[in-house]
Design a protein that fits this description.
The protein has no helices and three strands. The chain is mostly beta strands and 56 residues long. It has one domain.
């Protein structure tokens, strides 16, 4: 996802979600392009086995 400004700081342990399908994600990378003043954040899905003790 792309965000305006420098959004490169993030907590790698933060859990985001659920989305409309019930999936959860973590931010794994953030690259800032100063010319465009945009940050691209890369998300990785979290397997259900890692969530809430493996229960979902």
């Amino acid at each position: 996802m792309n965000y305006r400004g420098d959004c490169t700081e993030f907590d790698p342990e933060q859990i985001l979600g659920p989305d409309v399908h019930g999936a959860y994600y973590r931010i794994v990378d953030a690259d800032y392009d100063p010319a465009a003043d945009m940050t691209k954040r890369t998300f990785k899905p979290i397997p259900p086995s890692e969530l809430f003790g493996g229960q979902r």
